[in-house]
Hints:
Blueprint: E1 20-26, H1 34-37, E2 38-44, E3 52-61, H2 65-71, H3 77-83, E4 91-92, E5 97-104, E6 116-119, E7 122-123, H4 129-132, E8 144-145, E9 158-162, E10 166-168, H5 175-179, H6 182-193, E11 205-208, H7 214-225, E12 229-234, H8 237-246, E13 250-253, H9 269-290, E14 298-301, H10 308-314, E15 320-323, H11 336-341, E16 345-348, H12 354-365, E17 373-377, H13 382-390, E18 398-402
Parallel strand pairs: 11-12, 11-14, 12-13, 14-15, 15-16, 17-18
Antiparallel strand pairs: 1-2, 1-4, 3-5, 3-9, 3-18, 5-6, 6-10, 7-8
Helix pairs in contact: 6-7, 6-12
Amino acid sequence: xxxxxxxxxxxxxxxxxxxxxxxxxxxxxxxxxxxxxxxxxxxxxxxxxxxxxxxxxxxxxxxxxxxxxxxxxxxxxxxxxxxxxxxxxxxxxxxxxxxxxxxxxxxxxxxxxxxxxxxxxxxxxxxxxxxxxxxxxxxxxxxxxxxxxxxxxxxxxxxxxxxxxxxxxxxxxxxxxxxxxxxxxxxxxxxxxxxxxxxxxxxxxxxxxxxxxxxxxxxxxxxxxxxxxxxxxxxxxxxxxxxxxxxxxxxxxxxxxxxxxxxxxxxxxxxxxxxxxxxxxxxxxxxxxxxxxxxxxxxxxxxxxxxxxxxxxxxxxxxxxxxxxxxxxxxxxxxxxxxxxxxxxxxxxxxxxxxxxxxxxxxxxxxxxxxxxxxxxxxxxxxxxxxxxxxxxxxxxxxxxxxxxxxxxx
Length: 410
């Protein structure tokens, strides 16, 4: 018998789209601690428009963007959408996931009902003037993050996505494994291969901040796959061991240094000299971890304020610091003398385009890269897992949450 609402894990008849669904919601009145911001509620199943796909979500990945969404800062995603005309006074997060194609809109040709898919994290208007003129969709004025800037993410029984967000699920992966690699994997892949001529090549030293995190775990493997030498920065012996098992050529424990944060004003000679001593000491640790006296040709950044000064100082002449976030703050100081006189590059990088997503899926599918799934939680853990991430108590690697899947191994 067809119903208007099904329990989590209860599969509707094929082709039947129920009226309602369970979703983990953030509402403005709950902004603050992620552990308190998420609540399971019943809402309407989103409608499917032209070029769109309704997906029965099996599992969802966990990323820091919905820590920000839960806190309501630095960007109030609900207020921004409502100013643009949205009606929903709530946010359904989740910017990656895996599931089954349940319904398709007009014009959808590349996926069919019943396909098992992995969902990528950004949306854009394929008819936009800049894209039609040849722009990378990730640089389009229409680009936005699904499950963060856009509503109806993967923390719900059903989600609606654009057709190009659907990628074939690698058969060797469980639903949970398939849900947790795309955002970090594709982001790291673009950072390391998308900015010619500064792309990772055989023999290249690469410094990777947060080596044991989701992004760092994927970056270590990608650098190794392309023949480079990844050196990871960590904050504990356990994370050092984890990175070495992934293939890190060397590891640096950042706890042994005290120069993190903003650069002292150049007028303060004593403080500036102390900062430079610590930065040079960190550089020596990089040489020791690498096993030779070479600077990183690429520095993979996402920490931001605490580490950018060191990254720019340490990066090789004509090398690149490529950054995709600012988890420690957004005001990163750069000593411009090192930037222009050593002709270095500071490059922003944001997620990945369709081709780059497919390339990371292929590397995962053929076993060249592991999804590094370290934690699988249940749907009712969405808030607590984001709180764990906010408190930096999460395990190394990537995390996933079961939605309609009933087992982490299936």
